[in-house]
Specification:
The complex is a heterodimer of chains A (385) and B (261). Chain A is α/β, with parallel strands linked by helices and 385 residues long. Chain A is built from twelve helices and five strands. Chain A is 69% helix and 9% strand. In chain B, the strands form two sheets. Chain B has a six-stranded mixed beta sheet with strand order 6-7-8-3-9-10, sandwiched between helices. Chain B has a four-stranded antiparallel beta sheet with strand order 2-1-4-5, covered by helices on one side. The longest helix of chain B is centred in the last third of the chain and has 18 residues. The chains are: A alpha/beta (385), B alpha/beta (261).
């Protein structure tokens, strides 16, 4: 093994410090060896102890036997001088090699006075409430503005479909919709299967296993299909929209659109919203079907035929249930895509800002989905759907 | 070079800033048609602010910016769109759309603002690319290009609708001297052949001497113009020592206080 000890990385033993009181109030310090980042620490501590103990008026450093001195060593000598001068004392360094002296002379003690402590602005309770309220209002304003802008842009797009960049919309539809099929399939299938299985066990005790079909059919079509699809969309595409638009913002691409005279909302948001509005109900329909199929596995394994299972479902699940669910999913799709785009466009400068926008898009999306789903439940209840 | 004639951009008493700090205080100057005008200044002196004001991305606190006589500060709707059509912008890092090929990037303004047949759009986009020396690269994505090529492509896109003015942000930033010199050459040839007015932010002194008709030097403490004029004039005749030294490439790191001595 090569020996790094003495030449490259000297241990602290390669230097030493000797102190003695030369006269009353005059401390003599002699340093021998290397004063570098490895050895300076112990010397620094020892010196401090000695200074505390003797509190001298003058310190004389005999530096003639310092072989080497790096930034730490210079720092040590500098601090020594600063400490003494602050207390009205005096430091003299004797015999310090010229090149080290040059280094030491680069720094002036006056430039290293403790900077005045910058206190973070502290606010009182009411000020904080005011600030938060202000922020919420600003946020609400941005939201209203965005909804208004997007709404008009969407309306214009529908009135004049030729202006929409359908190629872009189709591309988004593919990544946000078609590519989501595998995960929707997996989650939908397992959801139907698990729900049927968990329900079948207790219901078998009452001889009501066949009603598992009602349960799976109604809950998938009315509630879980749209909800699950929307949450997957928020995780997959809401975040992607936010990251994509956020990166474009950071790269000045949004600015480039604006100075070209192209409205980013029309150009980027409308295509994504349209794609989401078209794809979410389709994905939901698919999730409904797959969930029901998942449930059928349980019933078949319990001895019922597929025909019985579906007859039972068709007798309970109506078109109103199905359309109600699909309508919900359209709204969810709009919300998820909208919040994703909004957060993307709100991105500030820097890579971490993009991450933050993505998080905010997903969280915001899921919160909105759940809240709006609650509203839908109440509205549907009173409408008798 | 084109004969320098009338004013194409008029900046009138612009005051701008963020929140509580004013960056530019009542700044006025004019840019003449056909000239290559360079904006200089240390960081924080308001170069980017000024550029963003001129291209209408930000609004000043007060003042107006006339582009061919129309005020971009107060214009809205179609009027604003008409002003935007007068110029193109090359952003510092190109700001090409990453999901589109170069050709699609250059085609985009044509698709959005003209009713040319698709084949014609392609042809025009390819012509613009050939103007900046990227004829063979139309099928590549921006990420597949070097920094200098991205800037060239961005210039091609900015020229798609044949604007009269091109704003170039940080023309030489992050480029090697050879590429930077190539871009200078490109700017000169475009100015010469197409009569485009250039407004450029750059720090490269060699570049400034090579291309600039006039230079404006902004200053942080003055919140405005330290010097304006042709680089050679400023070098030889500026009353300000700092300016003379800057254009002589000496003592650039001198204490800022010297600027006012």
């Amino acid at each position: 093994m090569p020996n790094y000890g003495s030449s490259h990385m000297p241990e602290s033993s390669s230097s030493s410090i000797h102190t003695s009181m030369i006269a009353p109030g005059v401390l003599g310090v002699k340093i021998i060896g290397r004063l570098d980042s490895l050895s300076t620490g112990s010397i620094w501590r020892e010196t401090n102890l000695e200074l505390d103990r003797t509190s001298p008026k003058q310190v004389i450093v005999d530096a003639s036997e310092i072989e080497y001195c790096d930034g730490s060593g210079i720092g040590y000598l500098f601090e020594l001088r600063r400490r003494l001068e602050k207390g009205g004392g005096e430091l003299s360094i004797r015999g310090l090699h010229k090149e080290f002296q040059q280094l030491l002379d680069l720094f002036k003690p006056s430039e290293f006075e403790e900077p005045p402590e910058i206190k973070p602005e502290s606010f009182g309770f009411f000020e904080k409430i005011g600030q938060s309220t202000g922020k919420i209002c600003e946020e609400a304003r941005a939201l209203v503005e965005f909804v208004g802008e997007t709404g008009t842009a969407l309306l214009k797009a529908l009135l004049n479909p030729k202006q929409v960049r359908w190629k872009d919309a189709l591309l988004v539809a593919e990544t946000a919709g078609v590519n989501a099929l595998p995960v929707i399939t997996l989650i939908g299938f397992l959801m139907g299967l698990i729900m049927a299985f968990q329900a079948a066990i207790p219901m078998r005790q009452f001889g009501a296993v066949i009603y598992v079909a009602n349960l799976v059919g109604l809950s998938m079509v009315r509630e879980l299909g749209p909800l699950m699809t929307a949450i997957v969309l928020a995780g997959r595409s809401g975040s992607a929209f936010a990251a994509e638009l956020g990166t474009m913002k950071v790269n000045e691409e949004i600015d480039a659109l604006v100075t070209m005279g192209l409205d980013p909302v029309k150009f980027l948001v409308v295509t994504r919203l349209l794609a989401a509005v078209i794809m979410t109900p389709l994905l939901t329909l698919f999730a409904d079907l797959i969930g029901v199929l998942g449930g059928s596995i349980v019933l078949i394994s319990l001895g019922y035929s597929l025909a019985t299972y579906f007859r039972q479902i068709f007798s309970t699940v109506t078109y109103v249930d199905l359309l109600g669910g699909l309508f919900k999913s359209i709204v969810f799709g709009l919300l998820v895509a909208g919040i994703g785009c909004l957060r993307g466009l709100q991105t500030e400068i820097g890579a971490s800002a993009v991450g933050e926008s993505t998080t905010r898009a997903v969280v915001g999306g899921i919160v909105l989905i759940v809240a709006v789903d609650g509203i839908f439940s109440v509205v549907y209840y009173y409408l008798g759907i | 070079m084109n004969p320098v004639q009338d004013t194409i951009i008029g900046v009138e008493k612009i005051t701008a800033g963020y929140k509580n700090t004013v960056v530019l205080q009542e700044v006025s100057f004019e840019i003449k048609r056909g000239e290559i005008f360079i904006i200089l200044g240390e960081s924080g002196s308001g170069k980017s602010t000024l550029l963003k004001l001129m291209i209408g991305l930000n609004k000043p606190l007060s003042g107006s910016i006339l582009i061919e006589g129309q005020d971009i500060v107060s214009a809205e709707g179609d009027e604003r769109l008409a002003i935007l059509r007068k110029f193109g912008v090359m952003y510092q890092r190109g700001a090409l759309f990453g999901s589109m090929t170069l050709l699609e990037n250059v085609r985009l303004p044509l698709e959005e603002f003209t009713d040319l047949p698709p084949g014609a759009m392609d042809l025009i986009a390819r012509m613009k690319l050939s103007l900046v020396g990227l004829k063979e690269f139309g099928g590549l994505l921006p990420a597949e290009l070097s920094g200098g090529m991205q800037k060239r492509a961005a210039i091609a896109r900015a020229m798609a609708l044949d604007p009269r003015i091109l704003f170039l942000d940080e023309l030489s930033a992050g480029l090697d001297p050879v590429t930077s010199a190539e871009l200078d050459h490109l700017v000169l040839s475009l100015a010469h052949n197409l009569g485009i007015t250039f407004v450029i932010v750059t720090h490269e002194l060699s570049s400034i001497y090579a291309i600039a008709d006039r230079v404006i030097m902004l200053d942080k403490e003055l919140k405005g113009i330290l010097a304006i004029g042709s680089p050679r004039d400023l070098r030889d005749h500026s009353e300000n020592k700092f300016v003379r030294r800057f254009f002589n490439r000496q003592g650039i790191s001198d204490a800022p206080s010297e600027k006012f001595s």
